[in-house]
Design goal:
alpha/beta; MutS, DNA mismatch repair protein, domain I; Nucleotidyltransferase, domain 5; MutS, DNA mismatch repair protein, Chain A, domain 3; six-stranded mixed β-sheet; about 40% helix; elongated; mismatched DNA binding; MutS_con_dom_sf
């Protein structure tokens, strides 16, 4: 350290407090990075790495830097790479500093706490989430600093907690230090992979400390007054979020004004696999928004409306009254296309008020942000006027609760120019007429020469000295020069400054006052403009809660208009929501598939489920016929109905569903050591444990990850369980290629068989995409294989094997015929008293364990023995 300069010693002292961040160290017009930070940042940012002390005896110090006035893109790139950035500013004027300039970290930018647009996606929230476990309860607290949204909940088990974290999709996680344990890390791999992680020691989760943090943030509020009483573990997680906020932001976040709590019982629950299988917010194959339900439904014109719609999709309601209120609003807007167009035009001019409010409250807003706020607020009166005459209760509440914020709009209108510059310190921000002193300074700056010319003419007239001149130099400033021949005519208020050989130089109080103004006018203008801007920003920030409330209502209005627009464009119907068990859909369609551009017309289908005679539907039919599409569309229609949307059907009657479960497709989890079949069984187990009579279950090809007999047995037992166990007897759609399962309809009153119709023509199949009563007699796998392009020789051989299997034929000696081809001959039989078939029959019966034989195994055994006769 002794060999280092004072500046480098200062850098290292500050860096020691922020070891896991990249330190942006302000030096003049640049943020400099040194040592390991410089090496890492130069690689990520693609900027030149140089070094200090090249010519000295000391060690070379890697160095790189970025301009402070355009640092946002560089910070955004580092955050995208998962890094944290500590912003270290000069906290005193270098001109006044004695020795090294004082510096300190003013904030730390992390992936979960960014507020700048460059690092954010407009229609996606940017969450920081804390997860904490105590006494087998899991508390979650998550904050979007860019909008001020702060929510908490508690869950009863780890699986539910991990599913909720996956749904929320935080960019950064706060976890207890104990979660560094490898066993815990493996259990949490589904939520920690690819996310920034921060670990806190046990003392951060102290109950008293967390309550103090909450009281400090929310002006003395208690959990009870915040409506969060009864969620003790979630409040500890909330304390961890606030601790991190104070530690990184070096102050409070005024726009975070409340905590919103919610409970599982308030929403239709969706586990991780269901969200993935139904492609609610992203496609399975590419993880893209386009092609998902959200991508299809989103007709919003504001960023905050887009985020609100995603929240509605992720959290469908269980409150019938609230669902109907949303439906009423959508229906009224649907019936007025002209009004919808006007509302969309007005809303399209509304900027992201939530994030503008966040930046203003955090003192990081620019003058352009204030101008954007004013432009957005100016749209509110027009929006309120147009919805004022509507009857739907929700629309009336939105109108009444939307504050036009006329005072803020007027303040910004008077204070900020219409098109301010990006950089605050360059001036040109404050409007003319807002501040008297600023107007005078600007007049002096703009009209300096004109003022001097007018003053000179005035003094010539007053003194009668025609040769009088007003001049300026750097030593004396402004002065009045009079020849010695005219000295006797000078007024009494002239003050001598300098004597020359042929002239005298004077000043006057007026000239002195002007000099003091004009010499520092430009600097004073910039400083005064910045101070005035700060005053306007602070006055606006003080109304942050009002801005947030209006922003939330405008986002809701945007979603309702979007749903009405979608219903109009796609011909959706209003579903009848009820508290019974009957689920009835007439001419239902898959909302995403039907919109895809295809040469094949989408074929609608009817659905009827209840908890008595049509509780479990077995669906058979070939691959590619549309079984999965049909089942998914039923689930999506149900979900859309409970979020308050109209649905793709001619008519529908939907019961309140507490959970939707799906078991679809084949996937493994190598990170957890789970095979495809293990994943399938774990998902099935979760369904059988969690399903209730109010649930909707979608099962596609249960048991296909193992041998045929094992698979049939498991599928049969799962179907029986969902039918027979009244606690878990959910409305179920069960697609399968195991035709044996169709026999369940004979033994169970609530099970029905349906199949996807096809037509055979010329050894080919035509998919009719229509679901009809009855079970399918074939799976048509070979025909589908032909469509997929398998070689013709493989197709022919498969047909031969299938024929042998269906006939159950055996060759001489008891060997199955499928084992040989057309050109192969069977081995010669050996003579026996009873023959080979009789010996095989006896041996097979001898090995049967009758006491453990299941009904399905008994049926299979009878079939096998019959073929041996």
């Amino acid at each position: 350290m002794s060999e280092l300069t004072p500046m480098m010693r200062q850098y290292l002292e500050i860096k020691a407090d922020y070891p896991d961040t990249i330190l942006f160290f302000r030096m003049g017009d640049f943020y400099e990075m040194f040592l390991d930070d410089a090496v890492k940042a130069s690689r990520i940012l693609g900027i030149t790495l140089t070094c200090r002390n090249k010519s000295s005896d000391g060690p070379e110090i890697p160095l790189c830097g970025v301009p402070f006035h355009s640092c946002a893109p560089y910070i955004a790139k580092l955050i995208e790479a998962g890094e944290k950035v500590a912003i270290c500013e000069q906290t005193e004027d270098p001109k006044l500093a004695k020795g090294i300039v004082k510096r300190e970290v003013v904030k730390v930018v992390t992936p979960g706490l960014v507020v700048e647009d460059a690092s954010l996606s407009p229609k996606e929230n940017n969450y920081l989430l804390a997860l904490f476990e105590e006494e087998k309860r899991f508390g979650l607290a998550y904050l979007d600093l860019s909008t001020g949204e702060f929510r908490i909940t508690e869950l009863a088990d780890q699986a539910a907690a991990l599913a909720e974290v996956t749904c929320i999709g935080p960019r950064e996680l706060i976890l207890p230090a104990s979660y560094r344990d490898p066993a815990q890390t493996k259990a949490l791999v589904s939520i920690t992979a690819g996310r920034a992680l921060t670990y806190f020691e046990e003392w951060v989760y102290d109950s008293d400390y967390c309550k103090r943090l909450i009281a400090n943030q929310f002006k003395g509020a208690t959990p009870a007054t915040l409506g969060c009483d009864g969620l003790p573990v979630a409040l500890l997680a909330a304390g961890a979020v606030l601790h991190y906020l104070v530690d990184t932001q070096k102050g409070s976040a005024p726009h975070v004004t409340s905590i919103s709590s919610y409970f599982e019982s308030e929403h239709l629950l969706l586990d991780e696999s269901t969200r993935r299988n139904l492609e609610l917010t992203a496609t399975i194959s590419e993880g893209k928004r386009k092609g998902s339900l959200l991508g299809l439904m989103d007709r919003t014109v504001t960023a905050m409306g887009g985020r609100k719609l995603k929240q509605w999709i992720n959290y469908p309601l269980m409150d019938l009254k609230k669902i109907v209120e949303r439906q009423d609003a959508v229906e009224e807007l649907l019936g007025q296309p002209g009004l919808r167009g006007e509302l969309r035009d007005l809303l399209s001019g509304v900027y992201d008020l939530e994030r503008l409010n966040g930046r203003i409250s955090l003192a990081s807003a620019s003058a352009k942000d204030l101008a954007a706020l004013k432009g957005s607020l100016s749209r509110i009166p027009g929006l309120k006027e147009r919805i004022a005459g509507l009857n739907a209760k929700l629309l009336r509440e939105l109108n009444a609760g939307t504050d036009p914020l006329d005072d803020i709009c007027s303040l910004i209108e008077r204070a900020i120019v219409e098109n301010p510059p990006f950089v605050l310190r360059e001036g040109g921000i404050i409007a003319d007429g807002y501040h008297e002193e600023l107007d005078e300074l600007r007049a002096i700056s703009r009209e300096g020469k004109g003022f001097i010319a007018r003053l000179e003419a005035k003094e010539k007239s007053r003194t009668g000295i025609s040769s009088l001149k007003i001049r300026y130099n750097k030593v004396f400033g402004y002065y009045i020069e009079v020849t010695k021949a005219n000295v006797s005519a000078i007024p009494e208020d002239y003050i001598r400054r300098q004597t020359l050989a042929n002239a005298e130089r004077y000043i006057t109080p007026e000239l002195k006052e002007y000099e003091e103004k004009v010499l520092g006018a430009e600097d004073r203008i910039r400083d005064l403009e910045f101070a005035l801007f700060q005053e306007v920003r602070e006055a606006t920030a003080a109304q942050g809660e009002r801005i947030a409330r209006s922003a939330d209502r405008l986002a809701t209005l945007d979603v309702l208009v979007s749903l009405a627009e979608l219903a109009h464009d796609r011909g959706y119907c209003r579903p009848e929501i009820h508290e019974g068990s009957e689920l009835s859909i007439t001419e239902g369609r898959h909302p995403v598939i039907e919109e895809m551009h295809s040469t094949e017309r989408f074929v609608p289908n009817d659905t009827f489920l209840d908890n008595s005679e049509n509780q479990l539907i077995i669906i058979t039919g070939p691959n590619m016929a549309g079984k999965s599409t049909f089942m998914r569309q039923v689930a999506l229609i149900t979900l859309m109905a409970q979020m308050g949307s109209f649905v793709p059907a001619e008519k529908s009657r939907i019961p309140l569903v507490d959970r939707i479960f799906t078991r679809v497709g084949a996937s493994d989890n190598i990170a957890r050591g789970h095979s495809t079949f293990m994943v399938e069984m774990m998902e099935s187990a979760a369904i059988l444990r969690g399903a209730t009579a109010k649930s909707l279950v979608i099962l596609d090809e249960i048991g296909r990850g193992t041998s045929t007999f094992d698979g049939v047995s498991i599928a049969w037992a799962v179907a029986e369980y969902l039918h027979d166990n009244k606690l878990h007897a959910a409305k179920t759609l069960f697609a399968t290629h195991y035709h044996e399962l169709t026999e369940l309809a004979v033994t169970r009153p609530g099970i029905k068989n349906f199949n996807i119709a096809v037509r055979e023509w010329n050894e080919r199949i035509i998919f009719l995409r229509k679901i009809v009563p009855g079970g399918a007699s074939h799976s048509y796998g070979i025909q589908v294989a032909r469509l997929a392009g398998l070689p013709q020789s493989v197709i022919e051989r498969a047909k031969e094997i299938l024929l042998n299997l269906e006939k159950g034929e055996y060759v001489e000696g008891g060997l199955p015929r499928l084992a040989r081809g057309k050109q192969k001959s069977a081995p010669s039989p050996q003579l026996s008293l009873f023959g080979a078939a009789d010996d095989q029959l006896r041996e097979r019966l001898r090995n049967v364990e009758v006491t453990t034989l299941t009904p399905l195994e008994a049926l299979n055994l009878v079939d096998e023995l019959k073929r041996l006769l």
